[in-house]
Amino acid sequence: PQRWLAQGRGSPRLVLVVVFVALLLDNMLLTVVVPIVPTFLYTTEYEGANSSVAPAQTEPAPPALKAPPFFSLFSYFDNTTVTVSGSDSPLGVSNGTESSLQAPSSPPAPQRGCPEGEEFLTKENIRVGLLFASKALVQLLVNPSVGLLTNRIGYHIPMFLGFTIMFLSTVMFAFSGTYTLLFIARALQGVGSSFSSVAGLGMLASVYTDDFERGNAMGIALGGLALGVLIGAPFGSIMYEFVGKSSPFLVLAFLALLDGALQLCILQPSRISPESTKATPVSTLLRDPYILVAAGALCFSNMGVAMLEPTLPIWMMQTMCSPQWQLGMAFLPASISYLIGTNLFGILANKMGRWLCSMIGMAVVGISLLCVPLAKNIYGLIGPNGGLGFAIGMVDSSMMPIMGYLVDLRHTSAYGTVYAIADVAFCMGFAIGPSTGGAIVRAIGFPWLMVIIGVTNLAYAPLCWCLRSPPAKEEKMAILSQECPMQTQSYTRQKPLREFPLTEDSDVEEENVE
């Protein structure tokens, strides 16, 4: 085993496995709460409050409210006797029938099992949206610092810190019983997710220097993200319905421990291995219009599904009267199609053009969002959600490699900062979407929310044309022309790149070469 680990630590494939598992668990925790939180808050706050008030109202009821006596009325028209409950008001009696009419003292039961408390559910849109957005907001603030940290100390230690924080957040979710504790656990998850995603994607970009191989690796890593989204929501709804609230989080905590053991064996997170080239400042990257266009595509395409997460389950409870297990299963078509899209277009996007792939993807995102309010039941959501997930997979699998491509082409080849920007764009979608989506639903309704974000994606899609052939900086063009004249598909760093620093002998070998 020691010999196998020593050989495997320098393998890019094992690094890809580590990143895949980290993104898988992060996004399982991201989506497992989607069907749990709305129903959990409804059960604990609305039904709990009503159940505590109901006994106080029924205890002082006087004995006179018992079942009224029955009287017999004789009909001279057809010689029949009808038994009715006692009442002071005259009663209409139909011919030849015998009935017992109850006093209208109790309110009618909700039809088709719809939850009561329409006003509570409307207000809950905002609270649930803010809770979901807290993770992205915290991640948005932490990402730039993590990007700078990875340039200084490397990717291994931040990756392991992300696992540790993620484990603590998962355990806190399992035992939180109030809205405040759930909010804190969600925000803590944002810190851990920032470390894992920025360090993981930067690590992949530094290991896979060839543009084609990098695109394939990013597609596989995003497949882990997609698989987490795929499993999370259905897994959470079924476990919450039939086992209990804590059960899905305890399972995720156990899987997180296995991920930590995998990182200890492969990454050796005690070692500091900074980037070999000086990273481009964040301010310089943010002034690059091509990076901003790519970041905007990531933001707006993911904002659509981010708005659906807190609002779609509540809309289904109000209009479709859906049971708890359906609230998570509604996201299953989007998750499956996202998994297919990321793996398929990780390869195809390089052949057909990543700019074209992302432009088509954003157009399909907009059309799918416009079709969501047309659904009358859960089966009507299969088509729109499936198209939405497939299209977001097209955008993500195209834009993530483009970010590394643009840094190689126009800046220095240090990837922590640029993937921090990519993650910031991703988090802006998941921060703005839930936080504003609940307020928009309360103001103008769920269908208009889908119209707004759908039209926004359709309007942004043509901007992806700008990424068709971005120009290289003059100094980078001189370096690239020495290696591969007139070609921009594979790039080399400004300094010779040593082997991935995962073995003890890598530093000694580098000194011997120098």
From TrEMBL:
<keyword id="KW-0770">Synapse</keyword>
<comment type="similarity">
    <text>Belongs to the major facilitator superfamily. Vesicular transporter family.</text>
</comment>
<keyword id="KW-1133">Transmembrane helix</keyword>
<feature type="transmembrane region" description="Helical">
    <location>
        <begin position="14"/>
        <end position="37"/>
    </location>
</feature>
<feature type="region of interest" description="Disordered">
    <location>
        <begin position="488"/>
        <end position="514"/>
    </location>
</feature>
<feature type="transmembrane region" description="Helical">
    <location>
        <begin position="445"/>
        <end position="467"/>
    </location>
</feature>
<dbReference type="GO" id="GO:0005335">
    <property type="term" value="F:serotonin:sodium:chloride symporter activity"/>
</dbReference>
<dbReference type="GO" id="GO:0043195">
    <property type="term" value="C:terminal bouton"/>
</dbReference>
<dbReference type="GO" id="GO:0015842">
    <property type="term" value="P:aminergic neurotransmitter loading into synaptic vesicle"/>
</dbReference>
<feature type="transmembrane region" description="Helical">
    <location>
        <begin position="328"/>
        <end position="348"/>
    </location>
</feature>
<protein>
    <submittedName>
        <fullName>VMAT1 protein</fullName>
    </submittedName>
</protein>
<dbReference type="InterPro" id="IPR011701">
    <property type="entry name" value="MFS"/>
</dbReference>
<dbReference type="InterPro" id="IPR001958">
    <property type="entry name" value="Tet-R_TetA/multi-R_MdtG-like"/>
</dbReference>
<feature type="transmembrane region" description="Helical">
    <location>
        <begin position="355"/>
        <end position="375"/>
    </location>
</feature>
<feature type="transmembrane region" description="Helical">
    <location>
        <begin position="387"/>
        <end position="407"/>
    </location>
</feature>
<keyword id="KW-0813">Transport</keyword>
<feature type="transmembrane region" description="Helical">
    <location>
        <begin position="249"/>
        <end position="269"/>
    </location>
</feature>
<keyword id="KW-0532">Neurotransmitter transport</keyword>
<keyword id="KW-0472">Membrane</keyword>
<feature type="compositionally biased region" description="Polar residues">
    <location>
        <begin position="88"/>
        <end position="98"/>
    </location>
</feature>
<feature type="transmembrane region" description="Helical">
    <location>
        <begin position="161"/>
        <end position="185"/>
    </location>
</feature>
<feature type="transmembrane region" description="Helical">
    <location>
        <begin position="220"/>
        <end position="243"/>
    </location>
</feature>
<feature type="transmembrane region" description="Helical">
    <location>
        <begin position="290"/>
        <end position="308"/>
    </location>
</feature>
<dbReference type="InterPro" id="IPR050930">
    <property type="entry name" value="MFS_Vesicular_Transporter"/>
</dbReference>
<keyword id="KW-0968">Cytoplasmic vesicle</keyword>
<dbReference type="GO" id="GO:0042910">
    <property type="term" value="F:xenobiotic transmembrane transporter activity"/>
</dbReference>
<feature type="transmembrane region" description="Helical">
    <location>
        <begin position="191"/>
        <end position="208"/>
    </location>
</feature>
<feature type="region of interest" description="Disordered">
    <location>
        <begin position="88"/>
        <end position="116"/>
    </location>
</feature>
<dbReference type="Pfam" id="PF07690">
    <property type="entry name" value="MFS_1"/>
</dbReference>
<feature type="domain" description="Major facilitator superfamily (MFS) profile">
    <location>
        <begin position="15"/>
        <end position="472"/>
    </location>
</feature>
<dbReference type="InterPro" id="IPR036259">
    <property type="entry name" value="MFS_trans_sf"/>
</dbReference>
<dbReference type="GO" id="GO:0030672">
    <property type="term" value="C:synaptic vesicle membrane"/>
</dbReference>
<dbReference type="InterPro" id="IPR020846">
    <property type="entry name" value="MFS_dom"/>
</dbReference>
<keyword id="KW-0325">Glycoprotein</keyword>
<feature type="transmembrane region" description="Helical">
    <location>
        <begin position="414"/>
        <end position="433"/>
    </location>
</feature>
<keyword id="KW-0812">Transmembrane</keyword>
<feature type="compositionally biased region" description="Acidic residues">
    <location>
        <begin position="502"/>
        <end position="514"/>
    </location>
</feature>
